Amino acid sequence: MNTAATKKVITPEIINSARSLFLRHTPVADIAGMFSVSARTIYNWIERYGWEEMANSGTLEEELNRMLVKLVQTENKTPAQWDEMDRLFAKLEHLANINFINAKTAKVNSSEQNSGNSNGEKKQRKSKETKNDISSITPEALEKIRKEIFYDYQHNWHENKHQRTRFILKSRQIGATFYFAWEAFEDAILTGDNQIFLSASKNQAEIFKAYIIMFAKKYFEIELKGSDCILLSNDAELRFVSTNGRTAQGYHGHLYIDEVFWIQDFKKLNLLAGGMASHKKWRKTYFSVPSIKTHGAYALWSGEEYNEKRKTKVDFDLSHNALKNGLLGADKIWRNIVNIVDAQDKGCDLFDIEQLRDERSESEFNNLYMCAFMEAGLSVFKLGDLLNCAVDSNVVWVDFKTGTVRPYGNLPVWVGYDPARRGDKSTVVVVAPPLKAGGKFRVLEKITLRGSWVHQANEIKAITEKYNVAFMGIDCTGPGNGVFEMVQGFYPRAHAIHYGLDTKTKLVLKCIDVVESGRIEWDAEHTDIPQAFLQVSQTSTGNDQITYSADRNSATGHADVFWATAHALSNEPLNTNRRKSGVAMG
Questions:
Q1: For the chain, how are helix, strand and coil distributed in percent, rounded to 5?
Q2: For residue 67, is pLDDT > 70?
């Protein structure tokens, strides 16, 4: 047997990738498993190449600051850039907390060694270092700001804050998370009560935290500190937890749960919520864009759960007319529907509703903006399968670090591009292929592009500089052809996808395969991904041939995240036995 032929080849690329993971504090055992080497080998590289010194050099914080400054100076920021800024703030705050704790520990140790310092002096110094001091904020100031920055439908939510349980069906992007972050912040200051924000992923929960930190800084010049919990000076706790949090059930306080119709295993979640808000003083607030009526949260929304326990059934009026201003039901749940037209009628001037109608199909617009539930059974995908693909990336993706120059190091990614139609937006999706045959794909990032072909091509070029792009699939039908030609100038390997009946069928079948087999993941905060997948249905052509559609035509374009993802996944054949899925490292 030729042992030299079976010995693993260690390339410089493998070592560089391992170094990138180590500098992001990935456990050595995890790094070794990714590259199929021993942990001893990784430790040898750490010592030989001085990785420990690099990790302690502070260059990560400097790089994060440079990235943040660059984003702050960028004009006309995209939603993705705003999201990246939030993540950078979170990373910098985490590093600052570590540095603060280390410095404070060193200072205390030094003071204990100095016999000239008395206990009285220590207590006096400690009393001057009140953390998250909100004692200067008055009720009058809070009320004045609240009345100035919110719309009438949000004031209606505030007027019903006393309800034990609120359940709000809402349009997309009308400021629900923004408002409830303020409500909890205000209530914590006025009452000292704990506030808990429960989301499907840590990233989603961090959005509440970013808003609260912004409120304190912008309106009161107070810098709030804290990671999973912000402890105010009046002992009120603001906690930000995900449904994957193992210790979440140990907390208690007023509870806010967002996008409940897009969280998997709602019954389990509701048991957790009940435990966190069991005492009669604690309130629960559910709010979400609707999904489909077979989702577990619908039984709570519709009153079916209440009626299941009773011989005499109660009728619940779920019509828009009944709930547009809010209504307390027999089950003591205050229900409210706020669609985009309601929001506009009550002062919100952020939308061009006709433009949104033009950008979306009727069914998609009604679901996202008019609070209409999607019809179960029409999509080729099942909501349960899609929700099972949602994970808390902070917990399970140890090799992916947002807020860094190379968030995925030198590991390869596949990119999919879905071009704009009239009144539509282009979408780019970055997918990490499995590191081992038969493993899982991961949707690392999705980016919305608008503007000229030149601008979009430049944005794609930036992606090739941020990631090690091993494959790029671009829809060249119609307007995508211009972008494709420009991308070829800096990425000659770009793969052209020309739509036809056979091509579309293969794209959809591939996605069905990876979803049903549980071979794809995305962060649970991206509820627009399962929304897009649910838009895809089976139909027939004029010749009675079976095809798949999301009502894509020259006038409307949507489900863009789905098609962009399908373009990236097209690099793996339908028959995975023909070419093993996975990345060959060396």
A1: 45, 15, 40
A2: no
